[in-house]
Amino acid sequence: MSKRLGVLVVVLALVSSAAGSASKADEKPSELWLATASSLGQRALSDPAAFDFVRSLTTEIGQRLAGTAAHKRAVAWAEARLKAAGFENVHSEPFTFPAWIRGEEKAEIVAPIPQHLAITALGGSIATDANGIEAEIALFRTYDDLLAAAPGSLAGKIAIVTQRMVRAQDGSGYGAANPIRRSGPSEAAKRGAVAYLLRSLGTDSHRLPHTGALTYKDDAPRIPAASLAVPDAEQLERLAALGPVRIRLVLRPTVEENASSWNVVGELKGNERPDEIVLIGGHLDSWDLGTGATDDGAGTAIAFGAARLIGSLPQRPSRTIRVVLFGAEEMDFSGAAYAQAHQGEIGNIVVAAEADFGAGNVYSVQLPPGAAGSDFGRLLQRVIAPLGANVDSRPALFGGEDIRDLHRAGVPTSSLRQDGLDYFDTHHTADDTLDKIDPKRLEQAVAVWTAFTYLSATSGVDFRSLASTAK
Amino acid sequence: MSKRLGVLVVVLALVSSAAGSASKADEKPSELWLATASSLGQRALSDPAAFDFVRSLTTEIGQRLAGTAAHKRAVAWAEARLKAAGFENVHSEPFTFPAWIRGEEKAEIVAPIPQHLAITALGGSIATDANGIEAEIALFRTYDDLLAAAPGSLAGKIAIVTQRMVRAQDGSGYGAANPIRRSGPSEAAKRGAVAYLLRSLGTDSHRLPHTGALTYKDDAPRIPAASLAVPDAEQLERLAALGPVRIRLVLRPTVEENASSWNVVGELKGNERPDEIVLIGGHLDSWDLGTGATDDGAGTAIAFGAARLIGSLPQRPSRTIRVVLFGAEEMDFSGAAYAQAHQGEIGNIVVAAEADFGAGNVYSVQLPPGAAGSDFGRLLQRVIAPLGANVDSRPALFGGEDIRDLHRAGVPTSSLRQDGLDYFDTHHTADDTLDKIDPKRLEQAVAVWTAFTYLSATSGVDFRSLASTAK
After folding, report:
1. Which superfamily does CATH assign the domain made up of A2-99+258-470 to?
2. Which residue is closest to B430 within chain A, CA to CA?
3. What is its main location (chains A, B) (predicted)?
């Protein structure tokens, strides 16, 4: 502890000296920014604030599904935390949405012999009746096999897709498999299925199924849908190879049509261009099975930790840094609510970025188009290379679910890519708990976020102009 | 497949040639045994029979808690398997015991804020009433801290011990922690506690609690007891550090006093000394949460696979090899039932060994006292060294729960020690499923078991005499 404090004192001294040297006429501003951003990055590597944030959130609040009393507690907790850390303009912006609340859920093999199955309902699934649905299964090893099934061919069946999700550092395995969960229920229903199960979109092999939202299509009946734990999906593959299998499925979720949620906001006001906004955030809501440590306690902690460090500088950056803790990401509502509420401000948002990919280290930063090779990109590269991260030559295409609508409205976005090799081991499961976070990797992520955020708010970079030049 | 068959043909030829050379007067018997045991061991390394056995058992039967219909199905399944594989004298030996059957089980933090807890009842725990027990917790970081608590000091409290279990290849971490589960409930009750929870005896960090049997003491009130998943135990440690915590616990198990179980037996009759018995086995019953793949489907598969390979030789070994698949190990009933039923046969059992430590490779074989340095020990070492295993210079102290009573009655026992570094990640949890078995490691274990069993049944070794010489 004393060692850590010692490091902090030295680093603070460096930061002060770097800031102090701003008055020297023989030094370029970019050299000052470089020194300050580098010092902040080093400081982040031993700053416990982000881990403390997610530890407190997951311990004192726990799960916080949007629409539940727990999420409301989380909102009050977050406001108090932001105020205590010195943020300005701390407030919560309300919106309403249809909240989906998990109920009883169970499944069992009825024939050839009784066996319990570990399942969990997909977010948005309709309920079965209290007795559930019992039917024979039709099992497909790939999603394309299901799509190739003829209309009506699944009449009266429970359709099951057991396609494996690929482990990939950049999350591309999840992206590729996502339609199996999102669209599978409606595709199965179009072919006559009465319910739908999929092998969890996860890279683990535990009896802990992965939840996640589905999207019913308008041209298909709505059928109940759930995920199987990976070992259970494999068990069904083996049993289905031996003969007919019957399953009973009970799902009893409910929906509250006009539930309340809030996007929680805190700011560091810019000292020269306060109307120009660098927006960073994560989402405060979580799924209900675990305590939302990596999804997305870690992301909120990263945004909080990065902004807090910048706020501790002797002098504020030129632009305003706005931290937004979104309030209903998992069911895709908070980003739209935020974009709608801030329509008039779109032009003022210099850049937006959301941390929503776990607690791993950042290995690559994707900037808006045209920025990677710019002075800004090179400056950022000099700061983050010693932290173990690169500026990616490819531009950011997706900054996060909650800033998708801002991006569509014209806001430049960045993507700070975290190592996700193990992220989908616990993503959306009961296993998403604090022990899955490595504090040192989290601190590295905060360091890169701090550098990116500080430079975006200080350097005067105009991402829109870089993008138009790049075209 | 054709490659595998090719290997089999070559190995069979070697085995036949080794057996054929028995008639050559210039060859010592031990050299023949060495050649045959080595060939059998090599053959085991590509023999799918053991994995097929455990795959079928866990897929077509699944969980098989003693006293349930599923276990009865497993007994019929096992008899049919043994007969189909050519075993003789296949039968099941019945016994009665008090069967403990899991019921509803749930726990939640009530205060400071509601949170779900992942728990599972300990085997043998009494039930709470339907509404459960709600009380403040008294949390101890080590078991000794609990033992140091004064009588009456836990009055009205739910006692919780969160001591960590150590990961160790030889299972010593489990041995050291075992009293926390076995004796903790009564020790807590003596001090006034109304219920007992422990951090799971496991080396994982998943939301899958580890069950296992408790042993109530006669001089303490019986209180309900359950295991917490590791992340939940850690959550309670963090919350307890912040202030009082209240929990509600509901456990609804039942007991069937005169339930039936069976020890399933199959033999390869010895061709010279059929009354002398080499007894190997595993236990067919499992806990109810997973499918009992590593505990102890793997053990039954190892014993089956080893004996089956020996049975495929052109000529039977001198002594009888008896495979016993015990029927109520998890609650400690089948070993006593077996020893009692076979009292008159104790002197005929040359050696007994049980495979009940997962599906890992065997790295060390502990023989009865005096045998490690004997001709038998050296012969075995020559066969298993190429397989990656050693004869341990230390004698076997514990051969397995089901042969403990045989050992007490004078039967020499051996312990074929499997690598258990990862065994307690899934032991006694819902995660004990087929995917946790690495077929190649299982095959290596079968190879060492085959060598040990063959040499014990062929060489005429007298372990009792070696033990008395060693004294």
Report:
1. Zn peptidases (3.40.630.10)
2. A207
3. endoplasmic reticulum
